[in-house]
Write a structure and sequence with these properties.
The protein is globular and about 40 Å long. The protein is α+β, with helices and mostly antiparallel strands. The two termini are about 25 Å apart. It has one domain: Immunoglobulin-like. The longest helix is centred in the N-terminal third of the chain and has 18 residues. Strand 7 and strand 8 form a beta hairpin. It is built from three helices and eleven strands; from the N terminus they run ααββββββββαβββ.
């Protein structure tokens, strides 16, 4: 069962990676996260959610894609948090979708039971400068967290690491 989940993670990650245009990936720094319920530092209720996130550093902003399936319900928010290691929590520094503002996307969109969000972080950082964000990203000190109504503190989490 665990190997089937790992294969699904790798498949989701491949879909996310290949969905980003090649021009975005050329000569750019790429970071990825595998999102799981086990990575949350608190108890997760009623979920077998899993997914992947890709973030790129480009001269025109920070494009991202997140895909999560198996959530306990509709995603209410998704953030990048930091700075924090895998065993620490930190406040949101970017709202990818939902609240609090300023959010890259106002709503988190579910398609056929799968959260699929993408956009470009431009000027939505809260609590850190662009340089601090880039440094934290390069040092593996940022994580993606997706929240639902059943799991308001977060249902899936994954640390962003250089690819």
């Amino acid at each position: 069962m665990k190997s089937a989940k790992q294969l699904l993670f790798l498949g989701l990650l491949a879909v996310v990676v290949f969905a980003i245009p090649a021009t975005t990936l050329a000569n750019k720094q790429i970071f990825k996260a595998i999102l799981t319920t086990d990575a949350e530092l608190h108890q997760v209720v009623g979920s077998n959610a899993h997914g992947a996130a890709i973030v790129a550093l480009t001269p025109n902003g920070v494009p991202f894609q997140v895909s999560v399936s198996g959530l306990s319900g509709d995603a209410t928010m998704a953030h990048i948090h930091g700075p924090a290691t895998e065993d620490q929590t930190a406040p949101p520094v970017v709202t990818l979708c939902g609240a609090p503002p300023p959010a890259v996307l106002a709503q988190c969109t579910m398609e056929n039971g799968v959260l699929k969000i993408q956009g470009t972080i431009t000027n939505q950082l809260v609590g850190m400068t662009n340089a601090q964000f880039v440094q934290a990203l390069q040092n593996g000190l940022l994580y993606v967290n997706v929240h639902t109504q059943l799991n308001p503190a977060g249902e899936v989490r994954g640390q962003l690491y250089p690819r």
